[in-house]
Amino acid sequence: MSHTINTEPIGGDLKKLGSVTLKLANVQTLEALWDHLVSQYHYLSYRKLLGHRLKYIAFIKDRPVAALSWSAPSLKLRVRDYFIGWSDKQRKTHLNRIANNSR
User: Fold this and answer.
1) Rounded to an integer, what distance in angstroms lies between the CA atom of residue 60 and that of residue 41?
2) What is the pLDDT of residues 50-90, one digit of tens each?
3) What Pfam families does the database record attribute to this sequence (predicted)?
4) Which of 10, 26, 44, 102 could form a disulfide with 69 if both were Cys (CB 3.0 to 4.6 A apart)?
5) Model-level pTM greater than 0.70?
């Protein structure tokens, strides 16, 4: 799938540019565009996200200005769990409240 994207710099006051709209990028809608944007413009490029994930594209009017994603956290991560102060029981109870920023 080919995408033509306006890459002219955007400048000015956000109030004058218009509102930013977030759209879910899933298989049926915008996932191919999200993959393309990340592949072309993210310094780490594109890698397939595994497991549970959410992908969004931010638009100003019909122009994409950001590609965002979050994925499920690691089940166990000693440094994170220690920093938060979780016991094994607390981690199991509250892990569903964490998301990793993926891109």
Assistant:
1) 17
2) 778 899 999 998 899 999 999 999 999 999 999 999 999 99
3) DruA (PF14236)
4) 102
5) yes
